Amino acid sequence: MVKVKMFDASDALKARKVAVEMPPINSKEFYDVVDSRRSVRIYADDPVPEEVMRRAMEAALKAPTSSNLQVWEIHWVRSDDKKKALIKACLGQPAAATAQELVVFVARPDLWKRNNGWMIRHLESNSEAPGKAIQYFKKITKIVYNQGPLGVFRPFKWLWFTVRGFRKPTPREPIHKGHMDTWAHKTTALAAQTFMLAVRAEGFDSCPMEGLDSKRVKRLLGLPRGAGINMAISVGKRAEGGVYGPRFRFDAKHFIIEQ
Ligand SMILES: Cc1cc2nc3c(=O)[nH]c(=O)nc-3n(C[C@H](O)[C@H](O)[C@H](O)COP(=O)(O)O)c2cc1C
Q: Which atom of ligand 1 is nearest to the CA of 40?
């Protein structure tokens, strides 16, 4: 049996490590994007060019994703009928009703096995792919994410992780459906935020929305039970009064904890 030691840092710790030269980055522009992104509730009538939407969605798919399994989907709702239904399912809120474009970010924990298979095929077709990476997707992910038919592996995983965890650091999740959902939603939310920052970088605005009827949205998009609605995001150009007041955050000292 091949023993896959994915997290063995001993070689890297021994070697001298030199920073790689990277092209310069204009950090001010990045912070301008972050600072000027606001949740917009009323949009102007200006349309959003199709290429802007496509570039922002492509950027979203470059977000980091756990085990690179990409358990996300972006549903761009373009037909008038579906848009109307989606606005209704978003409780008719102005951020949806006045939007030029609407997308829904969907978490797909149920597709991890399909994507794992794609990953193995991709790596095996590349003669330079490291054996360690192939083993990771052939062995590790299959242990970590597989819950067995109807979740039969769950109690055994719990027992294994708990007993092993007494002796050494051991990943404790995912061992039930809730963990799998959290796992997929984390990855999907990073894609959603990347999308919103890209939209802002293109000179447009957005609003994330979870004030929606997820059951109706799933039905509208033709999604199976295992899919989860992460958030809907509206896109357009902010109109006068479209941002409800200045940005407010609690004092960072409550949230940035150094220890
Ligand atoms: C997951 C999530 C769900 C949200 N849902 C809604 C929503 O349904 N409707 C809405 O108007 N704003 C929604 N918001 C926007 C927040 O209210 C907003 O981000 C927050 O007030 C901070 O304002 P800012 O985004 O302008 O910095 C949501 C934000 C997040 C992250």
A: 26
160, 45: one domain: no
Question: Going by DSSP bridges, is the β-strand pair 101-107/72-77 parallel, antiparallel, or unpaired?
Answer: antiparallel
The two structure tokens encoding residue 47: 């349309």
- Atom 10 of ligand 1: nearest residue by CA position: 209
The tens digit of pLDDT for each residue in 155-210 reads 999 999 999 999 999 989 999 999 999 999 999 999 999 999 999 999 999 999 99
Q: Domain of residue 207: give its range.
A: 38-108+191-244
Query: Ligand 1 pocket: which of 188, 209, 229, 249 to mutate (most atoms <8 Å of CB)?
Result: 209
Q: Is residue 18 part of a domain?
A: no
**Does residue 41 contact residue 94 with C-beta atoms inside 8 Å?**
yes
Q: Are residues 159 and 141 in the same domain?
A: yes
Specify the ligand 1 atom closest to the Cα of 189.
1
| Separation between Cα atoms, residue 167 and residue 170, nearest integer Å | 9
| pTM for this entry | 0.95
**Pocket residues for ligand 1 (CB within 6 Å)?**
38-39, 41, 93, 95, 207-211, 231, 247
Q: DSSP letter at 150?
A: G
User: Average pLDDT of 235-247?
Assistant: 97
State the closest ligand 1 atom to the C-alpha of 211, by its place in the atom list counted from 1.
8
Q: How large is the angle between the packed helices 214-221 and 80-89, nearest 10 degrees?
A: 160
DSSP summary character for residue 209: E
Q: How far is the CA of 27 from the centre of ligand 1 (A)?
A: 25
